[in-house]
Design brief:
CATH class of the largest domain: Alpha Beta
Shape: globular
Strand content: 15-25%
CATH topology of the largest domain: Aminopeptidase
Strand order of the largest sheet: 10-1-13-15-14-16-19-17-18
């Protein structure tokens, strides 16, 4: 009796394995060069005018993707294949000023040459003391804190751009690679957390000779910027907004006594990696910034493959790729190619996404977990589509078990593929490596997760493990020469097959995967 039970179990396992292998083969057979070419030649055609966010060309691409989702049997969510991503262009207002009262003497500064508001600035006026906080970084990971021992609540902070030891390959901040702590966005986020009411940012003088702002990004302040090239922003309140401005050499000289004095302080910080923060005595800053938000929107495109298991179908794997690019050159000769078609960036990743959806539609057996396919808009504007999604998820994030991201998957050697975020998603890495045995890539790993340079980063920030499939950089990146004829189609086929196999394993698993916080 015992032997019969074991035999029955063994035969059942063989049958299940055979079905699984057969199903995967059916899916893989559906992914081919012709299919990838169909997708890429449409998405990267001149008629879509570079798929800028927002633009009519991007809308045309969205309709195409939604039709493919529908044809492959993916379901809409809330009766739609589209998630409207609210955003808008930001216009600089007329009422912006900066003044410093030093020892009872008031100094008024000129907009553009002395100060320029950043696009993330808030519509507020503040009158407050000012505190120098070095690079404005609080990074426990690197045991570095410019805010140690200093109170900035209710005060304006003065910060240096970038991060300590910018040009030192041995820097604790990942050598010469800039971490996310170097971004102005991160510095402002930290300042708000510490209670600051305004931020003044200056180019760090040790490594940069041009300190004065030049009106960027505002067309009203710079003749070099076209009138319609207003900065774009998402329309949801990620955080309380406070006035944020870039300031120049004259402001620094008035506060520190000279730019050379600021250089000395910066040099000391870089050398000792210790804060040199202090509050300026007898100094009051008056700062007001004003912008106008002009409503616009674009679309994420979504399609759901519902899972087959009554319980596990409530859990979802997200497979994503951004479908936008950077549009067209504003100024060009009549005989000059001016359309950034973005065949690799990221018609290739979007086409792999569509190919995986098409492959799954050909398989008789459906995965136990659900799979949500998302084509993101606005990645080139700052990961807008994925950022909006994780703040406004169509399926609860607590039910999202993992995310697979495809971005630039069609260039360079057919034998190798970069995988990012594997260092923080070890179980996904293991699954992907196992499935790659049947595909045959040499997998190259990067730990550059802190850069947040593609849409997986927003999911990781929310605690969702992810993998990022990337074929590597090339000379045509963000150039008009990134065209469909340069795509390595057999490689893109291999990438899609690897993602299909990995997605199949994740979607038929019942485990929750860990994320290593860094």
């Amino acid at each position: 009796m015992y032997k019969n039970i074991l035999l029955l179990l063994f035969v059942s396992l063989l049958f299940f394995a055979g079905c699984t292998s057969s199903e995967i083969q059916t899916g893989e057979d559906a992914i081919n060069v012709s299919l990838l070419q169909k997708y890429i030649f449409f998405l990267a055609s001149d008629s879509l005018m570079g798929r800028d966010t927002p633009s009519p060309g991007l809308d045309t691409a969205a309709i195409f993707i939604a039709e493919e989702f529908k044809n492959d049997g993916l379901k809409p969510i809330n009766s739609s294949y589209f998630q409207r991503v609210k955003m808008g262009k930001i216009k600089l207002g007329s009422n912006n000023h900066l003044a410093a009262t030093i020892n009872d003497k008031k100094i008024n500064y000129k907009i553009k040459t002395d100060f320029t508001p950043f696009e993330m600035t808030g519509n507020k006026e503040v009158n407050a003391p000012v505190v120098f906080v070095g690079y404005g970084i609080d990074a426990p990971k690197f045991n570095y804190n410019d805010y140690a021992g200093i109170d900035v609540k209710g005060k304006v902070v003065f910060v240096l751009r970038h991060e300590p030891e910018e040009d030192n390959p041995e820097s604790i901040f990942d050598g010469k690679k800039a971490t996310h702590y170097s971004s102005v966005d991160k510095k402002v986020e930290i300042a708000i957390e510490k209670g600051a009411v305004g931020v003044m940012v200056i180019q760090d003088p040790l490594n940069h000779s041009m300190l004065n702002p030049r009106g960027f990004p505002w067309p009203s302040l710079s003749k070099l910027i076209p009138e319609d090239a207003l900065p774009l922003s998402l329309d949801f309140n990620e955080r309380e907004k406070i006035p944020v401005v870039q300031v120049g050499a004259d402001v620094a000289a008035d506060l520190f006594g000279s730019v050379e004095k600021l250089k000395e302080i910066q040099s000391s910080i870089d050398k000792d990696l210790k804060p040199a923060s202090f509050e300026f005595k007898n100094v009051l800053i008056s700062l007001k910034t004003e912008t106008e938000f002009l409503d616009q929107s674009a679309k994420n495109v979504v399609g759901l493959l519902e899972g087959s298991d009554p319980e596990l179908k409530e859990e979802v794997l997200v497979i994503g790729a951004h479908y936008d690019h950077v549009g067209v050159m504003k100024k060009h000769r009549d005989d000059e190619d001016y359309i950034f078609n973005g065949a690799d960036d990221n018609a290739s990743g979007t086409s792999c996404l569509l190919s995986v959806a098409a492959a799954l539609s050909k398989m008789d057996t459906k995965p136990k977990r659900s799979i949500l396919f998302i084509a993101f808009c606005g990645e080139e504007k700052g990961l807008f589509g994925s950022k909006y999604y994780v703040e406004n998820p169509l399926i609860p994030l607590e039910n999202t078990v993992a995310m697979l991201n495809l971005d630039m998957t069609g260039r360079n050697s057919i034998d190798s593929l970069f995988i990012e975020a594997a260092d923080v998603s070890p179980e996904l890495k293991e699954i992907n490596e196992k499935e790659n045995e049947a595909v045959g890539f040499t997998l190259l790993y990067s730990s550059n997760i802190g850069s947040g340079r593609s849409d997986h980063a927003n999911f990781i920030k929310k605690g969702i493990p992810a993998l990022f499939y990337f074929s590597g950089m090339h000379p045509d990146y963000h150039k008009v020469s990134d065209n469909p004829d340069k795509i390595n189609y057999p490689k893109a086929v291999k990438v899609a097959k690897l993602v299909l196999r990995t997605a199949w394993q994740i979607a038929n698993d019942n485990k929750k995967y860990s994320l290593i916080k860094k």
